[in-house]
Amino acid sequence: MAQQEDVFKKIVSHCKEYGFVFPSSDIYDGLGAVYDYGQNGVELKNNIKQYWWQSMVLLHENIVGIDAAIFMHPTTWKASGHVDAFNDPLIDNRDSKKRYRADVLIEDQLAKYDDKIQKEIDKAAKRFGDAFDEAQFRATNARVQEYQQKRDALHERFSKALNANDLEELRQIILDEEIVCPISGTRNWTEVRQFNLMFKTEVGSTADGASTIYLRPETAQGIFVNYLNVQKTGRMKLPFGIAQIGKAFRNEIVARQFIFRMREFEQMEMQFFVKPGTELEWFSKWKQTRMAWHQALGFGAENYRFHDHDKLAHYANAATDIEFHMPFGFKEVEGIHSRTNFDLSSHAKYSGKKIEYFDPETNESYTPFVIETSIGVDRMFLSVMCHSYCEEQLPNGETRVVLRLPAALAPVKLAVFPLTKKDGLPEKAQEIIKDLRFHFNCKYEEKDQIGKRYRRMDAIGCPYCVTVDLQTLEDNTVTLRDRDTMEQRRVNIADLRGIIEDQVSITSLLRKIDN
Ligand code: GAP
After folding, report:
1. Whose CA is nearest to atom 19 of ligand 1?
2. Measuring CA to CA, which residue among 220, 279, 218 is closest to residue 250?
3. Which residue, judged by its Cα, is nearest atom 9 of ligand 1?
4. Is residue 255's pLDDT more than 80?
5. Which partner from 140, 234, 335, 465 sits 20 to 30 angstroms from 280, CA to CA?
6. Which atom of ligand 1 is nearest to the CA of 269?
7. What pLDDT shows up at residue 62?
8. Is the pLDDT of residue 324 over 70?
9. Torsion 39-35-401-303 (CA) sign
C-alpha cells in the first residue's frame, strides 16, 4: 500500500515537472482541489475528449452534440432536485477541527476489511504456492470468515442508513466501528449534517435586485432543457442521444487524490432518449459499449470492473460505475444511469412546457426515458497517467521513466532531432517537421545529447523520435526510434507519414470499437 502511495506521489510530481498538471494559481501556493493543465496536459486532455466525442457523434448516426452554457435558469436546479438534495453528509472532528464526509469514512472502513482479507489470502498463497485454492481458503479460513462477516454486516447497515438518509445512524456506525480521525486520532465526532455542494453566485447588479444562480454541478441538465430544441430542429427519432463536454463545479469538502476529486472539473455526458419499457435493454447495451471504449486503450481488462449502486437515486431504476484500478484502489471513472423520465417530466412540470415525443409508429405521445453515460475528463486523464507511468530498468543499469501512453492520446507524436547543430542538419530536421506538422503534433529539439533528448521524449510519452544525421543529407533516410521497444531503424523520410499516422490517429482507436 505504502509502495502504491509512493508511486502515486511520483505520478503527481511527474505531472508537474513535465507540463501536464500544475496546481491552480501556483505562484500564490495553489487553490485547494483546483488544477491547471500545462502544455502537454492540455494536448492529452484534448485527445481524450476527441476520442470520446468521435466515438459518440461520429460512430453513432443517432447521436448529436451540443454546447450549453454553464449558467442556467435557477429553476433548472430546483426541477433537477439539486437545490434540495445535492448534499454530502459531513462530520467534524472536534479535536483536529477537520471535516470529513461521513460516507467516505465508512467506505474507508469497508476497504480496511477488504485489505485485511487480502493480506490473509496473500500470505496463504505464498505459503501453499501452486496448490493454493483461493475459493476454498475464503470459505474455510476462520479469520477470513470473521472479517468477511464483519464487512458484510457493516455494508448492509451502511446501505440501509444511506437509503433512508439516516444521518444519526451514519454517526452511530462511525462510533460503533471506532473510526478515528486520521489527524487527531480521536473519536470526538460532531453530529452529521447535510451540506449542499452547489456554488452560488449572483447575476445582475444588486441595485436591480440580483438573483442567485448556480455554477452547474453537472452538464446533463443543459441537455435535458435542450431536449425539445434538438429533437425538433434535428428531426430526431427515438432512440437518439445528445452528447456534451463541459465544465462542472462542486464545492467538494473532502478534496483528495490530486485531480480525482476537484472543485472545478470537466464532464463528458451523453443522454440517450428511449421509448419507456426499453430502458433496461439500452442500459445494458451502453454498459458494454462504454466498457469497450475504455478497454480499447489496452490497459488490460483486469483493471476495470463494474460496481452496481447499492443506493439508487429516487429517479433511477438502474445504475453502475465503471471503476479503474488506480494506485489507491479501484475507483469510479464513469457512471451509467437509467434515469427513467424523471428529469424531462420534472422540467415539464416546473417550466409548464409540454416535453414529450410523438411516436409516428404508434401514434402516441410520451415522455422518453433516459440512459445517461457520464465520465469525468480529469479522472480519465488520471487513469491514463497512472497506467502509463513506468520506471524501467535498462540493461546498462540505468532507469528510464517512460509514459507508455496509447499513441493516439500522446501529446506529441513525433520528435525530430538533428544529431548536431551544424552541417545543415537543423534545417533538414525543420523541413521534415514543416511537412508532417499538418498531420500530427511534432516537436523539434536540438539541445543536449541524443540520449538525453530521447529520455525527455520518453517522459512525455512521445511514441516516435527521428534523428537526422549526415547520411540523411545523402540519401534522405533518418533513424526512427520506437518509445516502447527503444528499437531504431533506418527509414526513408518519404515513408515517415505512412508509418506513423495510422498508429497515432484517434481513428486507430475508433476502429477497435466500431462494430
Ligand atoms: N450527470 C450525472 C453525474 O454527474 P456523477 O457520478 O456525480 O454523475 C459523473 O459524476 C462523473 O463525473 C464521475 O464518474 C466522475 O468521473 C466525474 N466527477 C464527479 N465529481 C467529480 C469531481 N469532484 N472531480 C472530478 N471528477 C468528478
Report:
1. 376
2. 218
3. 374
4. no
5. 234
6. 1
7. 97
8. yes
9. negative
Q: Which three cell numbers stand for residue 188?
A: 470526538
Ligand 1 in reach of 339 Cβ (< 6 A)? no
Q: Which atom of ligand 1 is nearest to the CA of 379?
A: 16
pLDDT of residue 256: 72
Q: What is the pLDDT of residues 12-46, one digit of tens each?
A: 999 999 999 999 999 999 999 999 999 999 999 99
The answer, yes or no, to whether residue 144 has pLDDT greater than 90, is yes
d(CA 238, CA 275): 7
* 1 pLDDT above the threshold of 60: no
Tell me the pairing of strands 264-274 and 304-308. unpaired
In this predicted structure, what is the pLDDT of residue 234? 97
pLDDT average, residue stretch 259-269: 97
Whether the CB of 461 sits within 6 Å of ligand 1: no
Cβ of 335 below 6 Å from ligand 1 = yes
Q: Which of 65, 67, 55, 374 is nearest to 236 (CA)?
A: 65
Nearest Cα residue to atom 15 of ligand 1: 376
Strand ranges, E, within 30-118? 35-37, 63-65, 87-92, 99-101
Answer whether 266 contacts ligand 1 (Cβ < 6 A): no
- Give this prediction's pTM: 0.90
pLDDT beyond 90 at 5: no
Pocket probe mutation, ligand 1, options 379, 382, 384, max atoms within 8 Å of Cβ:
379
Closest residue CA from atom 12 of ligand 1: 376
Q: What's the CA-to-centroid distance between 375 and ligand 1, angstroms?
A: 7
Helix axes 506-513, 39-53, angle to 10 degrees: 30
Question: Relative to the CA of 263, which ligand 1 atom is closest?
Answer: 23
What's the CA-to-centroid distance between 267 and ligand 1, angstroms? Answer: 7
State the distance from the centre of ligand 1 to the C-alpha of 55, rounded, in angstroms. Answer: 20
Residues 292 and 272: their CA atoms lie apart, in Å, by 18
Domains of the chain listed by start with CATH number: 1-66+219-393 (3.30.930.10), 93-195 (no CATH), 406-513 (3.40.50.800)
Q: Is the CB of 374 under 6 A from ligand 1?
A: yes
Q: How far is the CA of 338 from the centre of ligand 1 (A)?
A: 16
Q: pLDDT tens digit string along 68-127?
A: 999 999 999 999 999 998 999 999 999 999 999 999 999 999 999 999 999 999 999 999
| Separation CA 234–CA 228 (nearest Å) | 10
Nearest-angstrom CA–CA distance, 308 and 293:
19
Q: Hey, what's the cell of 465? A: 523520435
Cβ 339 vs Cβ 345: under 8 Å: no
| Residue scoring higher pLDDT (387 or 208) | 387
- Residue 90: how many CB atoms within 10 A of its CB? 20
Model confidence band, residue 221 (pLDDT cutoffs 50, 70, 90)? very high
